[in-house]
Amino acid sequence: MENYKLGEMEQKFADLIWNNEPISSRELTQLCEKAFMWKRTTTYTMLKRLCERKIFENSHGTVRALMKREEFLGAQGEQFVEESFGGSLPQFLAAFTRRKKLSEKEIEEIRTLIDAQEEG
After folding, report:
1. Partner of 38 for a Cys bridge, out of 17, 30, 32, 63, CB 3.0 to 4.6 A?
2. CA 33 from chain center: how many Å?
3. Residue 65 CB coordination number (10 Å)
4. Average pLDDT for consecutive 10-residue bins of the chain (120 residues)?
5. How many Å separate Cα 37 from the centre of its chain?
6. DSSP H helical segments within 1-120, as ranges?
7. Total-model pTM
8. DSSP state, 22?
């Protein structure tokens, strides 16, 4: 299974890219200097790490996402459920709802998702 866990700074860096892509690597280094006070080498090191994980690509000086933010968050959720609940979404929901009561709106949204799965 892929590793979709990001450290705090990796997540901030990824969000910066998702919010500005496509972005030139030069412009990205300038944004990181302002946002994080990073040197150019730090930006390239972090970018290389996330490119190796197939989240982003840096092609001809332009940085683009290989995974949309929503795809990545979905994969993160799947990985969490797999690792923490043996892949059982019902076990996750049971654990979640023991600590937090779902609102009527949330219940209806879940029903809509289930109905869409049954139709599809």
Report:
1. 32
2. 22
3. 17
4. 85 98 98 98 97 96 97 94 93 90 93 88
5. 23
6. 8-20, 25-36, 40-52, 69-85, 89-99, 104-119
7. 0.81
8. S
How far, CA to CA in Å, does 95 sit from each of 5, 21, 70, 71, 89? 21, 37, 24, 24, 10
Give Cα separations from 99 to 39, 67, 84 (angstroms).
Answer: 43, 32, 16
Please choose, from the candidates 12, 41, 7, the residue with its C-alpha nearest in 3D space to the C-alpha of residue 25. Answer: 41
The answer to whether 28 and 61 are in contact (CB under 8 A) is: no
CA distance 6 to 12: 9
**Cβ contact 46:5 at 8 Å:** no
The CA distance from 56 to 14, in Å, is 9
